[in-house]
From TrEMBL:
Organism per entry: Chionis minor (Black-faced sheathbill)
GO molecular function: calcium:proton antiporter activity
Protein name: VNX1 protein
InterPro entries named in the record: CaH_exchang, NaCa_Exmemb, NCX_ion-bd_dom_sf, YccF
Broad class of the protein's primary localization: membrane
Amino acid sequence: DVPKATEPRGDSDSHRRGSLCDRHCATINNVQGDLSDLGCHLHRPRVPPAMSPQSCCQQHSDEVCESCVVKTTLTAENVVEANKLSNNYKFGFKKWKSHVTARPWEDRSEIVKELYSDLNVIRGSGGSTVTCGNVLYLLLFGWWLSFLYVLVAAVMFVTVVGAPYGRLCWDLAGYFLWPFGKVIQKVEVPKSQRALGACEAGAEASGAGETSALLGGPTPCRWRPWCWADAGHWQRVGAVAWLCLGYPVLALAHGLVCVAAWLLVVLIPVAKLSARTATRVLLLPPERALVRRLRMTEVPLEGEVILCCYRAVNPYYYKYAVDGINVFAVNLLPLVLVTLVLGYVDSHNRLTSSPVKFTLALLSIMPLSYYIGMAIASISAQSNFAVGAVVNATFGSITELTFYITALIKGSREGNRCYAEIVKSALTGTLVGCVLFVPGLCMVIGGIRHQEQRFNSRSAGVSSALLFLSVGGVFAPTLFSKVYGKLVCGECHNVTQNPLGHYLCHNCHFDLMENNGTLYYSHVQPLVYTVSLLLPAAYLIGLFFTLKTHSHIYDIHISDCHMPGHHHSAVVHWSRWRALVILLLSTLCMSACADLATEHISPILTNSTISQYFIGVTVLAMVPELPEIVNGIQFALQNNLSLSIEIGNCIAVQVCMLQIPILVLFTIFYPTNFTLVFSDLHVYASMFSVVLMNYIFMDGKCDYFQGTVLVMVYFILLAVYFFAPSPSGC
């Protein structure tokens, strides 16, 4: 694998001089690539020794320093992955870490290959089998599985005709008590001892190539119709007794073990062990299944190895994927079905309470957000720029908008202003969390592996400038109302005997509806509409700036690599039509879960002692963003902090420049209690967060200490919201 050479910039960049040369000579390695998952290379260019950065920039103070101004080249396995990676560096596009195509098997690490291997490979001595994970298997599954096999063996011995299956169950009882370092193999019985020799001959004569649907192995002979004609009478009776008395009980037990181990993720080897036993081992004739212990000096075994397990726990199974879908998203998908069934079938809360349904609905949003993100990334990577931009703009914020709109509709129907305040708290919580918590957490976790991380300060500066603009625009109506609104207090007491003395007032707020709402309808509302038009326009200008006229600020060149001896045809996990169907279905399920969440949040708001501010800022704001947080952490671990920062900045910019204007536009057609006037706490928290983020990102490098500062400030703001009184109307 030879890294691609860096490419000089084109003539379009020749206008940049002086300071640009200084910056490139000093920080040529700002943008760092994702090395491990791309399977190819990131070439980090250096200045030639013959020309130092100082002499270079002194000699070419009025011209572009051609030896310093270079592009960082990122390479991917195929064109689709190159498009996905390129979209990650485009402003306004969803950043996605996982692959949208199947990676070549030869490019994967040995750790990942082991995750997808079958449990039928005999390895050399890898140390003792007495490990914490294996002991955990013994405590969770091994003892009672072994005891169940002993009971089934006793039953089969009692039937007399099922004695061969009883001996098999007795052997398997010892195996499943401690299966590590043992093998189950399928042996070939000599012809003189075969009771079903004619059966095998009939199978070969028929040419039937039946295989197991689950594991791809040959179907046991006794299931074929010609077997019954030639097998012995007592063997047929014994097989019937086994299928009626023994196999169903053991298959059910292994099914429960398989589901439980799969849900625990790290115990997926146990799930594979149980699945292979139920679908392969227990369907073999008893004389063809042999259980034996491996010895260090043993020669290779004769016969097919069906099961061979050394470890019950593998901590790397968090990387496991099914058809490109992470195992955690697969495990959480049934939760969505349970939530929808309970929510709409048990409408009178006879089975579960409202808090339980609210929690389930909120947890169901996480896998749906993952599927929406995966579908958007798949469609964008397989489409041109226009289609990708439309899909990202349309569905990029669908998760948050679905919840906000359903909450506003419910609040409008009930005449409850509390829902509008909850939406404002969630908007502020998303903004503050994506500005402070997401990049701070990525800096801390990435800083554990990398002492100092660098990022493209110029590209981050574009998002920072848009954040300043968007925060100023969003809170402009609030500041306007503070200046021109009339302060109205619910209750005032004179703390002195003098009528002209000091008064202590409670429940004060700025009234915008004085004189039949003249101030609001004549001044504040037009300002809200003006801001709601200007913010999306500024967002489009930012897109045009970063994607068209100044795309060079990312210093990134994407290309698909062609390594000798490797075939890199793109095998996509989801085609465009499949991704579109999943995107639409996930959006519909998201709408249903959001409706259930808003339907059952009322008891929590009325009976909870926690401030409604805190509920909106934390739970409702950050739970939908968990897939984005995971993506940011993965980028940071791969020393690609630029994308980790861009994830948080892009979400925060979209909150102010897209989501809030859409909510304002929605209130025009469907009147609600939502007004673009926020509480003082929201204003101060948001502005302070944006200022602190820009200060931290000023020098283009960071470490875990700076990330800790951002995270600590975020938790301080959460404490403020926790102890703050509930907003008026709740």
